[in-house]
Write a structure and sequence with these properties.
Elements (H helix, E strand, L loop, with lengths): L1 E7 L11 E3 L12 E6 L9 E6 L3 E6 L5 E7 L2 E3 L18 H4 L10 E6 L6 E6 L5 E6 L12 E7 L2 E11 L5 E11 L4 E10 L5 E11 L9 E3 L2 E6 L2 H4 L18 E7 L7 E7 L6 E7 L5 E8 L2 H4 E8 L6 H6 L4 E3 L4 E11 L2 H15 L5 E2 L11
Parallel strand pairs: 17-25
Antiparallel strand pairs: 1-11, 2-3, 3-4, 4-5, 5-6, 6-7, 8-15, 9-10, 11-12, 12-13, 13-14, 14-24, 15-22, 15-23, 16-19, 17-18, 18-21, 19-20, 20-24, 21-22
Length: 394
């Protein structure tokens, strides 16, 4: 038994309605108090951004249908999920110009806890060869992290079952004489748990093959991140992205407090996973060992992983990003040369699953540490002191 409510549908000319569903007015046998609420932001660059706020009784989080179904922020007990960006409010895509500042315009809307990068391209800005409407090769400049985070969903529904809340959305990244990709997402959370699951299906709506890249920027600031915080993951090898990251390779898994003027560092990983399922995990935990967040997924879905460190001043965006992906966030031309850019045939779909979990007890964190250690036993764990040609174009 379940209850399904349509929040947005393609035929509607009306804005998303203000809706509240909760355990008081809709009981399907759940023990926990829960709620789902929608609202539309007003004023400034947040004007017109729709928000769906979900509370499963333990974990609460806010989804942004207007921004590609990204997740703005979350809270689980005392565990704060997200970060304090200089971009304080969600930004409507109409105010984001991706080619600004040398292709870094994406950053003008960047403040989410979980944001997708893709679908046809992601990673650092750079030139690539495309085919124009006359079938001729041409050079084009691809901006940072692609388009999907700045495309509004056209279909959004919420389903309440006896076990979980499921938010579904559909976002199309399409153009004439270009890629025609559809993202269909399910963001699922069981009542009374500290985790959510993102099940994404990307489909090539066209008849011709098209390239596809996807990265999840899962970002954490003060709380889980702080002086003495640690990153833990089972890895076969890790290498710095560039000379700047090489400066910190001896402490790649450790964090300092806010440092005004800090220049970002990024580390590229080949993670280890379970034999067969290739399930793996990555965790960020605070210095006290009583707050953490864990990502769980299969290397079949996301064979590449990046740790992004930007421990700048608190007001400048003190943050680190845990980033599972189909490829590394280099320019697409470089990733293609290494055979890491996917191609979807006409009508083909690709389905992926990412679980994001908040841990708020030392016991749960120790258990996660033990899982990671068990996975690490099967891998040597090579740390490269400098960037390597396999991973990086620097």
């Amino acid at each position: 038994m379940s209850h399904i409510l349509s929040l947005l549908h393609p035929e509607s000319t009306e804005p998303m309605p203000s809706v509240r569903l909760d355990s008081k007015e809709l009981s399907l046998g759940q023990k926990q108090s829960w709620s789902v609420q929608t609202r539309t932001l007003r004023g400034g660059t947040q004007e017109g951004v729709d928000v769906v706020e979900i509370d499963n009784g333990k974990l609460s989080f806010a989804v942004l249908p207007t921004r590609g179904m990204g997740i703005w922020k979350g809270q689980c007990g005392n565990v704060q999920l997200g970060w304090e960006s200089p971009v304080k409010k969600p930004v409507h895509p109409a105010f984001v110009q991706p080619l600004e500042n040398g292709g870094l315009g994406w950053l003008k809307g960047f403040n989410e806890w979980i944001v997708r990068c893709g679908l046809s391209s992601m990673g650092a800005p750079g030139t690539d060869t495309l085919v124009d409407n006359n079938g001729n090769a041409m050079e084009a400049y691809l901006p940072l992290h692609g388009n999907i985070a700045n495309i509004p969903a056209h279909t959004v529904t919420v389903e309440i079952t006896e076990k979980e809340i499921i938010l579904r959305g559909t976002v199309d990244e399409t153009m004439m004489f270009g890629p025609a990709l559809r993202l269909q997402t399910e963001i699922r959370t069981d009542f009374g748990t500290g985790s959510l699951t993102i099940v994404d299906t990307v489909t090539n709506l066209g008849d011709n093959p098209t390239e596809h890249e996807l990265l999840y920027h899962v970002n954490y600031g003060c709380g889980v991140l702080g002086k003495g915080s640690r990153f833990r993951a089972p890895f076969k090898q890790v290498a710095p992205r560039d000379p700047r990251a090489a400066e910190g390779i001896d402490e790649f898994d450790q964090f300092e407090g806010p440092q005004p003027g800090f220049v970002e560092q990024a580390y590229f990983f080949e993670l280890a996973g379970k034999r067969g399922s290739r399930q793996t995990m990555a965790m960020l935990q605070n210095a006290k060992g009583d707050q953490a967040s864990v990502l769980r997924y299969s290397l079949k879905d996301f064979p590449c992983f990046t740790l992004w460190k930007n421990t700048a001043g608190a007001k400048d965006g003190y943050v680190t990003g845990l980033e599972p992906a189909t490829s590394y966030p280099n320019p697409r031309r470089f990733e293609r040369s290494k055979g890491r850019v996917l191609s979807l045939e006409g009508g083909e779909s690709r389905k992926t699953t990412l679980v994001v979990e908040a841990l708020d007890t030392k016991k749960a964190i120790r258990a996660a540490e033990a899982e990671i250690k068990a996975l690490q036993k099967a891998a040597k764990g090579t740390v490269h002191p400098q960037a390597i040609a396999r991973f990086s174009d620097k």
